[in-house]
Design a protein that fits this description.
It is a peripheral membrane protein. Belongs to the ABC transporter superfamily. With 372 residues, this protein is an alpha/beta fold. It has a domain of 234 residues: P-loop containing nucleotide triphosphate hydrolases (Rossmann fold). The chain is globular. 40% of the residues are buried. The structure holds adenosine-5'-triphosphate. The site of adenosine-5'-triphosphate has 13 residues, from β1, β2 and α1.
Length: 372
């Protein structure tokens, strides 16, 4: 069995907007020549500023949308060549968790129907077996099975994301892509969901692809990270290598923008200068050159290729750049403070799992907001 579970090969996605009698159509190159490999069993993260193409790439990887060019290889099979029927059958193996757990759930369906849907589509379980499996899944994601008859609006954001996770797990997937799975949730709830995903990954032997802009969450969870800028991957490396020795000036700027509570580090955060250019009219050459302090004439004219083996970087000058001053690089991945924070969240998560439905304000017996 290959070590690679999913591979993007020179993926492109262009969106065309507008156009008509008096208006010119605008084309956005949302994903521009992305090639990457996701290894079996890893947590692979995709990060970058808003609009850089993360969600579009995630949707392409699961063929929720079709690429303009390029292919996606899953277990040796090109997903872009599959017909609708074959793709539907594969859906049990490839699941998606959306950012907004409310709009991802049909408000007219009970939780039981929502979680049982993939079981109905992808398994031969009868109604009683499906009910049993739904109860099992609910318990596993920290929801009380007695809540199965309720509807999504009766749950908090964290609980709704747990429902989405249970639904994603129902068909026994091998790979799950989470598009900002925690960013719509309260900070304390975010950690609970992060912890739950980590536990489920171990238990079910999943491969996770996580899209996020919260670098602290990413550092905590991921094994490798791809950094995107204006539709392109500019750096791809193991998490620790990326955080301690980022080579692309954009990654360096992203990391420098994170406030880190390291003793002796400068207070405050450095903010990346300049606006992100319009994806409808991207700069020539290296797309980052308009914001890069190290840009030269070469950068303005020639697009750098993603170069390297384990630590890949798309920058003409990465070998000669001065080492960045990153307080974050001096903080260990699991600094005592970070460890304590996550331990606390984990404990809170366990407590919350036990009392989930009794603490939510939508529960008629309660009026107190919960951390869920
Ligand atoms: N269906 C669409 N039609 C037209 N343009 C689109 C469509 N989907 C995405 N885009 C554009 O493609 C670019 C990349 O969008 P995408 O949502 O992939 O970025 P992102 O990095 O996920 O951003 P965010 O973090 O804000 O979700 C953006 O300029 C966006 O406006």
């Amino acid at each position: 069995m290959s070590d690679i579970i999913l591979e993007a090969v020179d993926l492109h996605k262009r969106f065309t907007r507008g156009g008509g009698l008096f208006a010119k159509a605008t084309t956005i190159h949302a994903v521009n020549g992305v090639s990457l490999q996701v290894r079996r069993g890893e947590t692979f993260a995709i990060v970058g500023e808003s609009g850089c193409g993360k969600s579009t790439l995630a949707r392409l990887l699961l063929r929720l949308i079709d690429p303009t060019e390029g292919s996606v290889i899953h277990e040796g099979q090109d997903l872009t060549m599959l017909g609708a029927g074959a793709m539907r059958a594969l859906r049990s193996e490839l699941q998606f968790i959306f950012q907004d757990p409310f709009s991802a759930l049909n408000p007219r369906m009970s939780v039981e129907t929502i979680i049982a849907e993939p079981l109905r589509l992808h398994t031969s379980l009868n109604a009683a077996e499906r009910r049993e499996k739904v109860a099992e899944l609910m318990a596993r994601v920290g929801l009380r099975p007695e809540m199965a008859d309720r509807f999504p609006h009766e749950f908090s954001g964290g609980q709704r994301q747990r429902i989405c996770i249970a639904r994603a797990l129902a068909s026994g997937p091998k790979l799950v892509i989470g598009d900002e799975p925690v960013s719509a949730l309260d900070v304390s709830v975010q950690a609970q969901i992060v912890n739950l995903l980590e536990d489920l990954k171990q238990e079910f032997g999943l491969t996770l692809v996580i899209i996020a802009h919260d670098l602290a969450v990413i550092r905590h969870m991921s094994d490798r990270i791809a950094v995107m800028y204006l539709g392109e991957v500019v750096e791809l490396a193991r998490t620790e290598d990326l955080f301690t020795a980022p080579r692309h000036p954009y990654t360096q700027a992203l990391l420098a923008a994170i406030p880190v509570p390291v003793p002796g580090s400068a207070a405050g955060r450095k903010v990346l200068g300049g606006d992100i250019p319009s994806p409808a009219n991207p700069p020539s050459g290296c797309k980052f050159h308009t914001r890069c302090p190290h840009a030269t004439a070469l950068c303005r004219t020639t697009r750098p290729v993603l170069d390297g083996k384990d630590h890949q970087v798309a920058c003409h000058h990465h070998q000669t750049l001065p080492a960045p001053d990153l307080p974050l690089a001096r903080a260990s991945r699991r600094s005592p403070a970070a460890e304590a924070r996550f331990a606390l969240y984990r404990a809170a998560s366990r407590d919350a799992e036990l009392q989930i439905d009794t603490t939510h304000p939508n529960n008629p017996t309660n009026s107190k907001e919960t951390t869920q």
